């Protein structure tokens, strides 16, 4: 859920940045659907990978041994 929210926030900030570029310069910015899907997909995938990897490692540990080092 956090990675989905992060990806959504990143896309929203990209739209805001694009809007500000359009206001302040003569440049015309363009955000395509392909770029949005790619950016959101990469953000979500990174969140899932880096969230699952530590969780799987923690699940494979013996709870007594894991708590001993705290």
SSE blueprint and pairings:
Blueprint: H1 2-24, H2 33-59, H3 63-68
Keywords:
70 residues, mainly alpha, 3 helices, 80% helix
Q: Summed up, what is this model?
A:
The protein has 70 residues and is mainly alpha-helical. It has helices at 2-24, 33-59, 63-68.
Task: Please characterize this protein's 3D structure.
- The protein has three helices and no strands.
- With 70 residues, it is mostly helical.
- The chain has one domain.
- α1 runs antiparallel to α2.
- The two termini are 28 Å apart.
- The model has no long low-confidence stretch (mean pLDDT 89).
What ranges have pLDDT less than 50 throughout 5 or more consecutive residues? none
Strand content: under 5%
Mean pLDDT: 89
What is the share of helical residues? over 70%
Order of helices and strands: HHH
Shape: elongated
Number of helices: 3
């Amino acid at each position: 859920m956090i990675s989905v929210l992060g990806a959504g926030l990143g896309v929203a900030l990209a739209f805001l940045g694009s809007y500000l570029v359009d206001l302040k310069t003569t440049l015309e910015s363009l955000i395509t659907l392909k770029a949005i899907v790619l950016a959101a997909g990469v953000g979500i995938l990174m969140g899932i990978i880096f969230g699952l990897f530590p969780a799987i490692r923690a699940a494979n540990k013996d709870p007594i041994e894991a708590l001993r080092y705290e």
